[in-house]
Amino acid sequence: MAKPLKIFLAVVGAVVVLVVGAVVIAASLFDPNDYRGKITEAVKQQTGRDLQLGDIKLSVFPWLKVRLSDVSFSNAPGFGDAPMAQIKEAAVGVQLLPLLLDKKVRASSVTLDGLRLELAKNAEGVTNWAELIKPEDPNAPPEQAGPIKMEDVDIAGITLTDAFVTYRDAQTQQVYRLEKLNLATGALKPGKPMDIDITLKAIGEAQKLSADIVFSSTVMADLVTQRATLDALKLSLKAQGEGQTLDLTLAANVAANLQTQAVDLDGLKLNFKAAMKDLSAEGLLVGRVLADMSKQSVDVDGLKLDFKTKMKDQSAEGTLVGDVLADLAKKSVSVAGLKLDFKAAMKDLAAQGVLSTNLKAGLDSKRYELAGLNLDATATGAAVPGGKQALKRSGNAAYDGTAGTMKFSEGRIGAAG
């Protein structure tokens, strides 16, 4: 029994060696540049656009690797003579034996260097990529499954370096640019988490705004259940415009269900610092955000906001805590257990204290109800009679923004100074 098995394995091994050897010999005799014309002709027939290819390099074993240089793809008619897309260099490799023996794709990192992409919409609302995307035919028969299954595809990663993307909208006269775009991912395998890192500079020309953005996370996506998670998400943004600056860092673990339109941001931590003209603000916000777009609701559990603001000779700082529930359909907000510990100052007046209440607000009706209100504050300064006054207030309050009236009920007021 052992001898036939050895013979079988020897034959299989010999066949594999012969196949691989044949591929290697063929590749050594084959110059892919000889087929450049056929490739560009096929693209012309499929898209109506011109594809230009520079040098094409091919290597074999243990990786079947293809490297392209100086690639350009022409623009749509009516969008100018400049190419729609250019790539300085692109490369990808596939392991030969798993592909030949098991029909499994084991690809090296897909790399694109020096991408230049020009996207545009003309005055009639037509984009320069519209004819490249074929609309789905609802009556078309389902596509037959190919010999390679998605679960058998394993890509080492995607690397995009030094990319520039421009979008021009002739209808709105807006121009947006992404510059110095760099993207790197970990292994792409169905059902497995993937690391992703992105850096870029975003520019809005009309707004005269620019932002440096850094993003990283471990992403897990399930296309069947339409669920996705972004673990250890980190985002930093540094934006500046005419007399405006914003520095922001965000960290969270995100879980999203696209079917139910629900998003959970756990462990949210948002640091911000902003300035414009005579106003500046900075702070730290933490909490957990639960958003359900099917119900048009946003719930923030354990909200805590530490803040500082300054405007000319006025300043304020404090800590705000509470549990927030917003109904986007009704445009209403409620905050349970709201507590504000504050300090404020302006010219000849300073105040500090603690306010606690349960808040209900109607944004359309401009009505605000404060139940169980408690205020314990002290005001000092030249503008205060006697130089110092203490104020205590408890009860319920209602403010009507339309009428501009405030009503107090079931309360007590105490003052001393």
Helical stretch tally? 3
Q: Return the structural class.
A: mainly beta
**N→C terminal distance:** 106 Å
Rg on CA atoms, Å: 31 Å
> Average pLDDT, to the nearest integer?
85
Shape: elongated
Please provide the ordered H/E string of secondary-structure elements: HHEEEEHEEEEEEEEEEEEEEEEEEE
Estimate the helix proportion, in percent: 10-25%
Low-confidence stretches: 1-29
Descriptive account of the structure:
This protein has three helices and 23 strands. It has a 21-stranded mixed beta sheet that branches. With 417 residues, it is mostly beta strands. Strand 20 and strand 21 form a beta hairpin. The radius of gyration is 31 Å and the shape is elongated.
Summarize the structure.
The protein has 417 residues and is mainly beta.
Secondary structure elements and pairings:
Elements: H1 2-29, H2 36-47, E1 51-52, E2 56-59, E3 63-73, E4 85-95, H3 96-102, E5 105-107, E6 110-113, E7 116-121, E8 153-155, E9 158-169, E10 174-185, E11 194-204, E12 209-222, E13 227-241, E14 244-257, E15 262-276, E16 279-292, E17 297-311, E18 314-327, E19 332-346, E20 349-362, E21 367-380, E22 388-400, E23 405-416
Comma- or semicolon-separated keywords:
mainly beta; 59% strand; disordered N terminus; 417 residues; two-stranded parallel sheet; 21-stranded mixed β-sheet
